[in-house]
Amino acid sequence: MVFVLAILFLHVTAALWLAVGALGCLVVRGRLRAQLDGSAQHLAVDLLHRLHRLYTLPGVLVAGLLGFSLVTSTGYQFVQLWIAGAAFLWVVLFHVTLFGINPRLAALARAKQRDLANPEDPPRLPSLLAKPGWRRLLDLQALLLLAIIALMTIKP
For 95-131, how does the pLDDT look when each residue is reduced to its tens digit (9 = 90+)? Predict the structure, then answer.
C-alpha cells in the first residue's frame, strides 16, 4: 500500500510538472502573438523552448509511465472506459508533444540562433513564428492535458 501511495504521489507530481510546462508554453505563446521587437522575440522563443524541454517532455514521459504502472498495481483494468480513454489521450498527447511540438520548437530555437549569429542576413524567426502549426499543437496539447485531468479526477 505504501508503494502504491508513493507511485501515486510521484504520478501527481509529474502531472503537475507537465501542467506547468504545457500551460507555461501557452502563456509565452500568447505573449509571442504581440508585436515584439527582435530581442523580446528571441527571449520568448528561448523561454518557450526551455519550458518545453525542462517541464513538458519529462512530465509527459514520467506522468504517463507512472500512470500505467498505477493502473496495473491498483487493480483497475484497461477495459474500464475512463482508463482506456485516458490511456488513448495520453498516447495522442505523447505523439503530439514528441513528434509535433518538439521539432517545431527546436526549429524556432535554431532560427533564433541563426538570426543572432548572422545579423546581416534576413531574419528567419519571424517567418517561422507566423506559421500557425506550432501554436495549434500547443493548444491541442493543453486541451488533451485538461481532458486527461478531467478523466482522472471525475472517474465516471
Answer: 999 999 999 999 999 999 998 998 888 888 888 888 8
Is 77 in contact with 11 (CB distance < 8 Å)? no
106 vs 112: CA distance, rounded Å: 10
What are the E-state strand segments in the chain? Answer: none
Mean pLDDT of 125-153: 92
> Based on C-alpha coordinates, what's the Rg of the chain?
18
| Element housing 95 (H / E) | helix 81-95
pLDDT score, position 76: 82
Q: What is the pLDDT at residue 125?
A: 87
**C-alpha distances out from residue 150 to 56, 82, 121, 147, Å:** 19, 10, 48, 5
CA angle 51/42/116 to nearest 5° reads 125
What's the pTM?
A: 0.90
Residue that the C-alpha cell 514521459 belongs to? 61
Cell of 37: 521587437
Rounded to 5°, angle at Cα 81 from 78 and 87 = 55
Question: Which residue from 61, 64, 65 is spatially nearest to 53, judged by alpha carbons?
Answer: 61
